[in-house]
Amino acid sequence: MKKKTKPIFNGAEALASLVFLCAQSAALMYVLCRSYAFLCTVIMTAVSFGIYMVFYKLRRRKGFSFLAFVVLFIIVNTVCNIVGNPYRSPSFLEFIFTSSDFFDPSYAAAAILLFSMMIGFSVCYFTAYLPRPGLLLMPAYIPFILAARTLGSLPLGLLIFLAVGFFVAAMGIARPETPQEIVYYDDKHSRRERLSAAGIIALAAAVVLIILPRNENTVFMNYLDTVLRERTSYYGRQTLSNFMQSSIPNRGNNNPSSDTLFLAQTYFPRNVSRWSFDIYQGADGWTYDEGYSRGYSDWERSRKAYSVSELVKQLKAAVNDGKLARYKDEINRLEDIESVTAQMTIRITDGSSTGVVLHPNNTVGARITGVSDKTYRNDKDEIFTAKEMGRNASYVLEYYAEDPDPSLAELFERVGFQEMLNEAFREDAIDFSLYDAFSEESQLARDYFKDTNDSTITSEIKALADEITAGITNDYEKAHAIEQWFGEAGYVYDMDFVPETPTAEYFLFDSKRGICTDFATASTLLLRAAGIPARYTEGFVLDEESRDVNGRYVVTAAQAHAYSTAYIEGCGWIEIDGTKYARVDNTEELLRNSLIIIISIGAVLLIAGIIFRRQLSELAFAVVFRFSEKNAAIRRVYLRTRNLVCKIPGIDPKSATAEEVRDIAARTLGMDAEAGEITDAANELFYGSGTPDADEKRLYENYKAIYKMKRSRGK
Asked: With DSSP H G I counted as helix, E B as strand and the rest as coil, what are the percentages for the chain, rounded to 5?
């Protein structure tokens, strides 16, 4: 009996692959852990190489090693799910698919473990298990895909490092050495196999690129400063270049970037506004009224005096002193309003240079870090600097985090706000700064309503506003009735919906489906139709989902938001957001997740098919054989045996005779009797006059014996 032999793998594949693993680790950590890329690269190189060596040691047991990989991958995936539990914000996937302005050690460790598992096994497989230089490119798709979705591109140095690592690994691929009498040919079938595998991998990568979150803007592009590069007189003598002249209507198929634009730190989160618009242009969206665009400095003093809590406090104190007897009962019924002066720190992170100061409603002060220039505020609450603040500016904002009081709005609506304010000032019930701030804001709101409430409000919108606010007596309740109506009427928030025309009328009366800009446009027009001063405002939402483990709000383009700002006597300008009451359409997300799962399962099955292709082929043959009639079964056993033994010398099975098949099986495998029974039955079938006497089941057992002997000898 011949000595059992197996292919022996030689070559410098371990050391050569180490270079490639280090290159991939550097590219991945550059994308995921920008600030800690070097340290994380060292750690990931060590971990991925350790995983590589584990599977390299198991290279003679391919089936067992693949099962070990599946089990280990499930364990790693479980660890990642535990680390990225649903109660943490941002999630583990958000960490993966951003350019990691924030760094989380546990997320970084999970990412290192996950990707080390993937590239460690795949590099080992395609250098030692199935040596294919073309397929060795597969693990390199991972950093390329992540970079394309976050950073835009990898630095030239990393690209060169990746290329060098690939060529070193390709040159060091293990070569199987077998007994000298066996000759292997790189025939057409092998070349087709490699080309097919490369095509499948390229197709899978293309599909993944389509499915994964797309970043239209990267950290190398200035997101907050991409509009109005030409110098204008928008702010009179202040020549700002990055305020929008008009809004962008909803055209459908919205796909916001996941790049981090800025960080916000505060204990009292509020929406932060960027700019507002005044005049509605139908399908062209909103534009500004230049009369409300000029800013003024020294605005902090008057804004600090505009405090609703201080107004209530002074009114109640005056009543206790015997003043304002006419309003005594109403004022005594007012609840005390807690005075809260909050701070918010904003730091721009996308590399832009802007003069626009992002700020929450009721901002009363702004301090720009490292900038001595004044800030300016206009009559529609836009705050800016005369010159751009420089790249990645940071500033501290002070604002009143006071909640509006419906009872105060109802009181001022019933008795007349300005009349009560005048009487309070005449009786010395409130100080001049408070009186002046509220009187000026009230007059400004009335003027703004007169200047912006034009013919763009159609009779249909006016009739709808009257229907929504029917029976309501004060503006505060009217505004909130309009806000809540979008939910009651069944409107749907849908990022992918493509409107036939981007107008308020189409949204309100036809589609009832859109994004925040549609809801904000509609609510602004409905508020004006109800007699309430309102403006269309664009900014960002600070929600809990954007809050990181350090308590900062990590704001991306996905948090960009539009809403209405309405003036209510006694409460000031309040935010009205119909979007938050809309039903969310998540069909696209469900389809995307389902597709990702299907592709993942398909990829696992494809790899399993490649690894266990022989076993699967034998299983398929056994099934077909069982359901074949006798002559067909004998024919199949012979042809299967012929193909099997002809692979040993590398000859074309179609040119081999039955005697040659028997001779090869006897000479190389010592299976003369088994092969003889098969070939005799085949000769009788092909050249005889009837059905052979041979037992087809015995012939199949002979074939299995030949197959096992060939495998045991590594042939």
From this structure: 55, 15, 35
Under DSSP, is residue 347 helix (H, G, I), strand (E, B) or coil?
strand
**Residue 65: Cβ within 10 Å count:** 21
DSSP assignment of 164-203 equals: HHHHHHHHT--EEE--TT------HHHHHHHHHHHHHHHH
Q: Mean of the per-residue pLDDT values for the chain?
A: 81
- Two tokens at 489? 């009427």
Q: Is the bond preceding residue 90 a cis peptide, omega within 30 degrees?
A: yes
Q: Which two tokens stand for residue 688?
A: 């005889």
Would you say residue 149 has pLDDT above 50? yes
CB under 8 A, 24+ apart: contacts of 451-454:
451/278, 451/289, 451/291, 451/292, 452/278, 452/279, 452/289, 452/528, 452/533, 452/535, 453/528, 454/279
Q: How far is 139 from 620, CA to CA, in rounded Å?
A: 31
For residue range 340-363, what is the model confidence (pLDDT) as tens digits? Answer: 899 999 999 888 888 899 999 999
Contact 656, 638 (CB under 8 A): no
Sequence-ordered list of residues with C-beta below 8 angstroms from that of 405, at least 6 positions apart, any chain: 308, 312, 334, 335, 337, 570, 571
Transcribe 282-310 into DSSP letters: GGG-EE--GGG---BS--HHHHHH--HHH
- By the 10 Å C-beta count (0-12 exposed, 13-18 middle, 19+ buried), 14 is classed as middle
Q: Which residues pair with 566 in a beta bridge?
A: 534, 574
CA distance 522 to 691: 84
3-state secondary structure 489-500: CCCEECCCCCCC
Instruction: Answer whether 99's CB lies under 8 Å from 148's CB.
Output: no
pLDDT tens digits, 240-269: 446 777 888 888 877 787 888 999 999 899
Distances (CA, A) of 271 to 264, 321, 528, 543, 553: 11, 39, 22, 9, 11
Q: How many CA atoms lie within 13 A of 329 on its CB side?
A: 2
Count of residues in the chain? 715
Q: Are 376 and 240 in contact (CB under 8 A)?
A: no
Burial class (CB in 10 A: 0-12, 13-18, 19+), 263: buried
Residue partners of 29: CB distance under 8 A and separation at least 6:
36, 37, 38, 40, 41, 44, 112
pLDDT of residue 263: 92
CB 538 within 8 A of CB 561: yes
Task: Please check whether residue 312 is in contact with residue 336, taking contact to mean a CB–CB distance below 8 angstroms.
Answer: yes
Short-list 19, 15, 22, 17, CA closest to 38: 22
| Cα 480–chain centre separation | 33
Q: pTM (2 decimals)?
A: 0.55
- Phi and psi angles of residue 246, each rounded to the nearest 5 degrees, phi first: -155, 155
Question: For 453-542, where are the alpha helices, taking DSSP H only?
Answer: 459-468, 475-488, 504-506, 516-529
- Rounded distance, CA 424 to CA 318, Å? 8
Is the pLDDT higher at 386 or at 480? 480
Q: Identify the H or E element spanning 260.
A: strand 260-265
In order, the DSSP letters of 561-606 are EEEEEEEETTTEEEEE-GGGGSEE--HHHHHHHHHHHHHHHHHHHH
Cα dihedral 668, 670, 671, 676 sign: positive
Statement: residue 189 has pLDDT above 50: yes
Q: Which residue has the tokens 């709000």?
A: 553
Q: Is 322 left (phi over 0), alpha (psi -120 to 50) or beta?
A: left
